[in-house]
Amino acid sequence: MTIVQKARALLAQTALGDLYHYYKVPRVRAKYHLKKSMDAFQEEYDSYWASVNSDRTLTTMKEQFDDIQRNGFTIVENYIDQIQLAAIRSEVDSLEGFANGQYEGDLTFTNRPDDGICALSIDQSMPETYKVSIGNEDLHGLARALYGCKTRLSGASLLNKYGVDKIDSSNAPHWDDWRVRLKSFLYLSDVDEEHAATIYCKGSHKDLPWRFEKDFCSVFMSHEASAGGSWWPVDALGFEKVLCKGKAGALVIFDTAGIHAGTNLKKDNRLMIMNMYTTHLDFTHRAF
């Protein structure tokens, strides 16, 4: 090593050397500002989650509360009986065109033909459907018990997956948001391997080694760049993949901070009522 090379090597180990590399090497500047940005977001992140407090005494659904805290999800078979199911199905089946994504009535309607799924808003013109969704105080209380009194119903929709073998954009493994988001699916038809059951990675709602990095990307990068993911880093974590199957009348509730993914519809339709709870979004019509 020449004298000049030795001098450069020594200089590189000093603050002056760091300053030189900062201005000379673009990636050094990028890493510096990325760390500053992530540190700043960490403050907001930690402050938000410190404000989220659970209280089991606030819910009548204590078994489901425990399941969700432990595993991230719960499945309640026969949540509604056959008489109530038949009354709801009567309301749904009377919605002309809804079964094939062609509804043209007065309710707010969203159709996503590329995904083969459509969504309809719920109001009191469908009293039985309204009762188990927007009017369901047991579900509202469970959400508040899990995540605090600021948790509120932010969406309620009737969902119909009608596109056989359509690759839904939700099929990639993902979680929904860096903040609280709880969802419930009340099945109005049988849901299994052939009827687009959701996959949930049991226990993945808890600490993940790269959760903060992905949450950071979801906030500061475009949705297109940060949405979804690949199974290979998920599989490396060794979570049990649970297929959330159930007969019509079953209720699935899950913390969407857990890794989950949709599956393809192989035949018929998949009908369900979705409730969504957050701490920060006002109520609105939602397709997912």
Walk me through what this model shows.
- By secondary structure, this protein is of the alpha+beta class.
- It has two domains: 1-50, no CATH class; 56-278, Jelly Rolls (Sandwich).
- Helices cover 36% and strands 18% of the residues.
- It contains ten helices and ten strands.
- The chain has helices at residues 3-12, 15-24, 26-50, 62-71, 82-93, 127-132, 137-147, 211-220, 223-226, 231-235; strands at 73-76, 109-112, 117-121, 152-161, 181-187, 199-201, 241-243, 251-255, 260-261, 270-278.
- It has a seven-stranded antiparallel sheet. The protein has a three-stranded antiparallel sheet with strand order 7-6-9, with no helix packed on it.
- β2 and β3 form a beta hairpin.
- α1 (3-12) packs across α2.
- The model has no long low-confidence stretch (mean pLDDT 93).
